[in-house]
Amino acid sequence: MPPEDNDASKSPSKRLTPQELSAVLQRHRRFVGQLPGGTRANLSFHDLSGVDLTDCDLSGADLSGTRLQRAILTRVSLKAASLFAADLRLADLREADMTRADLRGATLRGAVLDDAVLVEADLREGLLARSDRSRELRAVTYEASPADMVCVVARRADLSHAKMSNAFVVQTDFSDANLYRVKLSGADLRNATLTGSILEGADLTNCNMTGANLQGAVLTNAIWANAILEGADLRGAIYEKSALAAAADATSARRVKPFADLNTDMAHVLREHSKWISSSGFSGSQARLSELDLTEFNFAKAHLSAAQLDYCVLSGVDFSQAELLMTNLAYADLREANLSRANLRGANLRRATLIRADLRGADFAAMDNVGNSNSQWPADLELAKLCGAQLQSVVLRGARLVGADLTAADLSDADLSGADLENANLTDANLRGAILQGANLKGVRGYSPS
Questions:
Q1: Residues 121 and 82 sit within 8 Å (Cβ to Cβ)
Q2: What is the pLDDT at residue 1?
Q3: Which CATH class is domain 256-450?
Q4: CB–CB of 411/394 below 8 Å?
């Protein structure tokens, strides 16, 4: 807890001249570099609103109670800095490093934290001490102030192991953020966007997630005790049903349904779909199986081209040598599924989860001569999770793999010519013998051309 309010904290925040601020930053750089003449920056209760601090190193600086509204803090280092009760409303914190920063009671309303790092950051309530007007010690009172992250945009931010208990996180965008083992007990996440985020091992006890979008999120080993999920969207999310039962109202969330709810049998569905395909839609009926749990079925060598299988739970299902041309598998849970030698040309697997799936020899090449314009229709694996997948000899010519996670995937002898891999993660991937001619590798992580 910071010191109780005194004359300095009650008075208007101090505004430094550009020259004074530059001198403070220069001395702090020497302090960080352990050079003579270095002094830790003490900017507590200063007014830095609107200041451009791009690329500055403020590691360990004291910014308690500092006004930083609309400040430009792009790529700034705030590692282990004190931002207790700081005002960061509408600040630009893209790619900022706030590892282990003290943000208790801070206000980040409307701030942009895309790609920021907040590993082990403390965003819990801050306890502010205030004296009365006579400033007598015996009249000190304490006021709990939760961290305010309302309407924050933190796409792809890394908040793993962060402490966010009781934080106010309404309408915040955490799309594709890493929230591994984050402490969110008692937090208010109403209408938050958590699409594709990693919430593995997260503590969601007593968390209010009313209306939250959790499509494609990974929630394995999460703690759901008494969490409020009214109107939350869990389609395509990965979680244990038994653990989710501990939530206060799990049944009110939007989730996949059992196949039995269709009141039909799969053999009939497949026959009608085969007729629909062979007649170009003039007879039979398209297989519309969206948002269903289909783990009980075997689709080896099945003809399911152009079927609707988006948001389905298909973990461990056998699709080997299946015909899946132009099939919609967006947001599908295909963990450890067998798709070896399957025909997936032009298929939609956007945000699908294919962790440890067997895709050996599968064909994801673009479909040719589609529509009246005779254009190509590429397979779409944008933002798909392919960690540890077996992709030996797979054909991904011209495929869209933008932002896909291919960590530790085996892509040996794969054909990735002309594929779009922008911002994909290839850390520890095996690319021995892979063809990458004409591929877009802009922003790819974990890959160095030999």
A1: no
A2: 39
A3: mainly beta
A4: yes
116-161 pLDDT, tens digit per residue, is 999 999 999 876 555 455 544 444 444 557 789 999 999 999 999 9
- Largest Cα separation within the chain, whole Å, is 87
pTM of the model: 0.88
Query: Mean pLDDT, to the nearest integer, of 347-364?
Result: 98
Could you please report the per-residue DSSP string of 206-260? T-B-TT-B-TT-B-TT-B-TT-B-TT-B-TT-B--HHHHTTSTTGGGSB--EEGG
d(CA 408, CA 410): 7
- Contact (CB, 8 A) for 34 and 46: no
Predicted local distance difference test score (pLDDT) of residue 4:
34
Q: With CA atoms as reference, report the closest residue to 421 among 445, 397, 440.
A: 440
Taking Cα atoms as reference points, which of 204, 167, 205, 212 lies closest to residue 187?
167
CB atoms within 10 A of CB 201: 17
Q: pLDDT tens digits for 165-179?
A: 999 999 999 999 999
235 pLDDT above the threshold of 80: yes
Cα(419)–Cα(342) distance, integer angstroms: 19
Strand ranges (E), 50-151:
126-130, 141-145
* 172-186, 244-258, 283-297, 351-365, range with the lowest pLDDT: 244-258
Count of CB atoms situated within 10 Å of the CB of 116: 27
- Region 409-416: mean pLDDT is 98
The domain segmentation of the chain, as residue ranges, is: 256-450
Rounded-to-10 torsion of CA 422, 423, 426, 432: 20
